[in-house]
Amino acid sequence: MRHRSDRTHLDRNAAADIRIEKLLSQMSYKEKVAQVQSVLAGRQAFESEEGEFQSDLVGEHLKQGIGHVARPAENKATVTPNKSIAATINFVNATQQWLLDSTRLAIPAIFHEEALHGHAAQGATSFPQAIAMASTFSPELVERVHEAIAREVRARGGNQVLSPILDVARDPRWGRIEETFGEDPYLVSAMGLAALAGLQGQDPDCIAEDKVLATLKHLTGHGQPSGGLNTAPAEMGERALREIFLLPFEVAVKLGGASSIMASYNEIDGIPSHVNKTILNNIVREEWGYQGSIVSDYFAIDELVTKHQLCATKEAAADRALHAGVDIELPDGDAFAAYFAHPNQVNLAALDAAVSRILRNKLQLGLFEQPHIPKSLEPELIGCGKHVQLSQRVAEQAIVLLKNDKQLLPLDADSLTTLAVIGPHVHETLLGGYSDVPSHTISVLDGIQNYLRAKDVKVVSAPGVKLTENHWQAGYDSIAANTLSKERWHTDQVVCAESEENSQLIEQAKAVALESDVVVLVVGDNESTCREAWSESHLGDVSSLKLPGDQETLVQEIVAAGKPIVLVLNNGRPYALESVAEAMPAVLEAWYLGQNTGAALANVLFGVVSPSGKLPVSFPRSAGHIPAYYNYKPTAKRGYAFGDTNALFCFGHGLSYSTFEYSGLEVDESRVLSNGYLRLHFHLQNIGQRDAYETPQLYIRDQHASVTRPVQELKGFKKVFLASGAEVRLTFKVPVFHLAFYDLEMKRVAEAGKFTLSVGASSSDIRLSAEFELAQDVVNPPIKMTEYVVSTLEEST
């Protein structure tokens, strides 16, 4: 029977610090050690083949309690979504009840899940991949998506998610670029704040029962690995580290109330992130005032021995990680278990600090008051129609129109007799990494056929080529195809398709194209050609940015058929498409669009929806053009002897079926020093024939400074819907913080001097410009995001 001499930690009216202190004072050494460990592989020992909790087999796994239980949705009962959901719910509730009944202090566990673009669990809603969400340039939509994700995760038993990813991605060779919000620190910050608000709400001290604890990852520099190789060292100076890669995390901590951060696999200047005390402790905790937990990436502490070759033993690796600021080892307590087995060698103060931060997370989640799954969250909301509709809406706004010569798009269904849909995966729905099998999907071919069913248009199709031999067939039904999508991402070995077989498929596709009026040609990736390279036997980074396999040959042959072509990119990374794009009258970037991919794409192809996506990453002309990001330094683009240095498609680029006019830029600098904001106003009018969205973007250039500055930097954007002919006045309220940088002494300061302010439809399509002069230095301005006011002309006067 449990004995608790003090129940202060159960008093919800007591301050969190007091509750933690009282609970910590009652804990034994072993109980403390249990709180900084997680269980994943060990969970299999007390989970039956039907996914049920088996109390008689718990053994040492939970005897002293546990900090985290990893990925409960990955239970053994995965035959059908409904069975999987029910089994997970029962397992979570039974585990929590056992911890209440059978451990001395009755400390509940945190159950963490993966939820990059939807809960990575069977039957959950699959939203567009993160890079596609970033293409919407709509923090409002991103917040709504993450609200839905939080509800689905919590309804199934999870209460912490290992997302969002705030890596600033600067190398398209990197297979994880699809998991990010792009190459720009301001865009990543804005999307990260929105995701954070959707996941855990506005009050980090009291996370609601339909919210989850979010985990920012990966701290830091992970998005610019040497050679584009996952986990490779990140070569950068402190100024770039702070201004680019740390900024989204700082924004999320200071403005979003983030309470969990994951360290990254990589190293910076010889110091792996999991032992980088300067970053984890000195910057994040001391400078930023962060009080939340820092979790390890999966197996990363072991990798200090096996990969980085920094430490000789697991014990030494665990010791360094704990002292640097890592609070809990995921997914299983391997290195930490070995280290804590020798209590006389453990710094007890460091252990107490780590335990305190894990307990604080549990208090934030209200687990001491309600350790079980809230009854208000019905399992039926998992994968519900409302969430699937939201997924499709986001997908429609994520599609980027890269090119549209002679206004080929939108297609006029009434003028078509036969339409060809060609591509290696048009019969299935590519979901991207960190996905599971949703309840249903709509493939590209399904979506087009569904739209044209009442139009008396014949739809013909062909795969054209195979990308990979493994997990591929041209005519799978949607559920089987989704299973293939997941298997491709997980299977280590990737076998490229034989060109001889592809030659036959290309000839068949060309014959199909010849009998059509228009060809929709879908090329790109699958989940095995672009993915997280998590080991030497499971790779996903590339050295070439040409379309994988024989797809460029397919493109050439379809072009030779002489039919109008709409090229659709269904992919996880930007590709070098110079010759391909030149031959195409119309090009759409679709990324991975979630479970209703086909319906969203059909609506854009046929003009039900005007495309409004903007590129969150630049498209280089070749791998040799890397780095291709837009916010480069003035000396970075002198020129190549035999080619352009500029991007093929620039950051922020995205066309519309309508036309927009920008005018009347005014800069109000009267209150910059008095209240810390610069205001600028301009007019935006839809002068085209279609109702549509446009996203004006604000770029700033510090003309002269004490250190070199980028040629332009995004500091604001606002997505606006305008009916044909409508006009609005936009006000961007820009805090002085966005004029600041780290000076010669590594102090954050907005230096006095002239700035160029530019407003445009992309980083290379600038419509309006003005100069502004800051009268005096502003040292360490408060961190804030740009605010926006959209008003009618009558309101603005």
UniProtKB/TrEMBL annotation:
Q: Name one Pfam family in it.
A: Glyco_hydro_3_C
The protein's matches in InterPro entries, at most eight in alphabetical order, are given as: BXL, Fn3-like, GH, Glyco_hydro_3_C, Glyco_hydro_3_C_sf, Glyco_hydro_3_N, Glyco_hydro_3_N_sf, Ig-like_fold
- GO MF annotation terms: hydrolase activity
Q: Which organism is it from?
A: Gilvimarinus gilvus
The protein's name: Glycoside hydrolase family 3 N-terminal domain-containing protein
Establish whether keyword S-adenosyl-L-methionine is in the entry.
Answer: no
Q: Which domain of life is it from?
A: Bacteria
What does the sequence similarity comment in the record state about its family?
Belongs to the glycosyl hydrolase 3 family.
Q: What Gene3D superfamilies does the annotation carry?
A: Glycoside hydrolase family 3 C-terminal domain (3.40.50.1700), Glycoside hydrolase, family 3, N-terminal domain (3.20.20.300), Immunoglobulins (2.60.40.10)
Q: Keywords assigned by UniProt?
A: Hydrolase, Signal
Residue ranges annotated for the Fibronectin type III-like domain, each copy included = 694-763
